[in-house]
Amino acid sequence: MSSVPNVTLNNGVPMPQLGFGVWQVPADQAADAVGHALAAGYRSIDTATIYGNEEGVGQAVAESGIPREELFITTKLWNSAKETWTRDAVLREFDASLARLGLDHLDLYLIHWPRPMREDYLTVLRAFGELKASGRARAVGVSNFQPDHLRRVIEETGVIPAVNQIELHPYLPQGDVRSFHAEHEIATEAWSPLGQGKGLLDDARLAKIAEKHGRSPAQVVLRWHLQIGNVVIPKSVTPSRIKENIDVFGFELDAEDVAAFAALEDGTRFGPVPDTFDWG
User: 180: phi > 0 → left, psi -120 to 50 → alpha, else beta; which?
Assistant: First the structure.
């Protein structure tokens, strides 16, 4: 039985607040990593077409013996730079992801990047609306969208994304984007929540908070995410760290800790800038 609480998406679908991400998990390690995560109590798994490991995720799900209704599986449509998306192409790619995962439906389907210079994300979201209406995707959403992109989606397609998955960590808490989400009942999901191993977890200020609680820096960062309401998807292929990352429900950060986290914000972004990123 998982100890992870759910958040309720804007269409009533429950989603675990803490899940397991598989970005940069090699295809030949994905089944083992996801298997360890499921055994540790994770029930939400986040993958993507571009990760190249949907088959491994599907293998782990099939071998786990966990009833499908207890799992929450997310994948993402990759915005290939070689084409502009049409409705039919989106639906074909959805079918291809389902086949690789070995599933008959998804719990959440996301568009990976807005690519605003391509002017096709509205077409994608309209197709996503069809997938949601059919029940083949229980919820649909976006990743790396800025408020201007979200505003266009809502106004021009009528689709209100259930989730926006964005880069978010203590150096980049994305307050403006989270405020927009709250106004429109869009769940905020954090990718690279631990800073991609690029120095965040070595910050002496975090070490001080971690020592105070007898926890690791990763655990206090994940606890921060949970307490400000984010959905979070840490990743690891190390079984001990997989277990450590879900063991974040037995303590709370106090007001002093929260203030210390607020002081960490410096605008550092480890990933691409969503307004200009166009793969290829």
Answer: alpha
With 0-12 / 13-18 / 19 or more C-beta atoms within 10 angstroms meaning exposed / middle / buried, residue 232 is: buried
> In degrees, to the nearest 5, what angle opens at C-alpha 76 toward C-alphas 71 and 81?
170
**Angle 9-78-114 from CA coordinates, rounded to 5°:** 65
From CA 269, how far away is CA 172, in angstroms rounded? 7
Distance CA 38, CA 211 (A): 29
Catalytic residue among 42, 51, 121, 171: 51
AA identity, residue 162: A
- Is there a catalytic annotation at residue 51? yes
At 65, is the secondary structure helix, strand, or coil? coil
* Rounded alpha-carbon distances, angstroms, from residue 94 to 100, 106, 164, 206: 10, 9, 18, 40
Q: What are the tens digits of pLDDT across the range 24-47?
A: 999 999 999 999 999 999 999 999
Kindly report the length of the chain.
280
For 231, the 3-state DSSP assignment is strand
Instruction: Give the pLDDT confidence of 155-211 residue by residue, as tens digits.
Output: 999 999 999 999 999 999 999 999 999 999 999 999 999 998 789 999 999 999 999
Task: Please tell me the pTM assigned to this model.
Answer: 0.96
Quick one: which H or E segment has residue 180? helix 175-184
pLDDT at residue 119 is higher than 90:
no
Could you tell me where the DSSP H helices lie in 72-135? 87-101, 121-134
